[in-house]
Amino acid sequence: MTDLDRALHATLTRVADEDVHVEQLLAGARASGVRYRRRRRIGRGVGIGVGVGAAVLAVSVSVSAGVSRPAGPGPAVGSEPSVAASPSSAAAKTTLPAPPVVDGAATAAGSAAEIGRPMLLHLGLDRAPFPVGGAQYQQLIDERQELLIIDGTVDDRRELTVRVGATTKDWEPLSGRRKTVVVGGRAGTLAVEKAAKAEDSGMAGNGPRAKADGGDEQSAVLRWRTANGLWLQVAGARDAAEASTVAAGVRLDRTYRCGAPYRLRTLPAKMKPESCSVVFDGGSASSMLSVTDKMSNILLVTAAGLVTQPNEKLGGRSARVVQHGGDGGAAILEVTVDEGDGVLSLTASGHYDAATVRRIAGDCQWVGGPDPATWPTDPLGSGR
Question: pTM to 2 decimals?
Fold first, then answer.
């Protein structure tokens, strides 16, 4: 774990409560997304996947849900590939929550160049093949990729990842038995991999893999390319038929706003957005945002909770500011601000300026609100 990893782990442990339900942030968040689970615990470490000297600002806000949903049915990017049906394809399907739609905006279905435009999301899915407990939409700006991570309920601990990108860098591999299929009239690759036996994995009946012949479990990955050159992938399906069903519902014909319930009014102009997310977890909606100046490291996490042991005032609000050593003796600055109906927590490392970190925290204009549709369209501040 890096200094940033440890700082994030400590911050989430301190401020998270039952409204956040954080289980883990996967190593390499740029590629894998920052994941929320319905069970409150942090496991297997925390990673942001930033390079040496990169500045990252990640923001997560937990508010009561006023969930926006896709505006009716629309054309899918791909149709079913030529794979045989199986009982799993008849599994219960659930409509996903989605961020607010940007009316009249250009779509990735029309132009591949739309993928990577800051603060806009394009990847959608009509329905999931299992009851949905949470969903995260994430944009990776420099990589020109997006991903949609879908979590099942506590009773059905499934996970499905849908991706779109100009490249397939850091995607789930096409491991196991492969074959060529057809998705929406275009050639694709289906890979089905056997895993541990169900009785050995402890996931029999509820896990993300289905039993194959011989009692083994399997997981399917389906990858194909659109007519305008974008790559699409479905990973975590139980079998070929389920992968086919999900692929048929993938769509790029809408553009969503990747907003946040605040404005960072004094964020330095040299800091640019690197990634953003909108997260739905049961009855809550959250947002995460990262920016970089390639010098200092600043990490912000906002959540429900209270600031414990405040020792300063920032922007007229109670705050706690603590500086301590990280790996190799480098200093880390942690700032936590009470926003009234949430907590804003900043962790800075690298070549940071403490006064700048305090100013960002104190000048944050907290908007809040239960519905992502009411969040500011420009969380990075006026004119940006």
Answer: 0.75
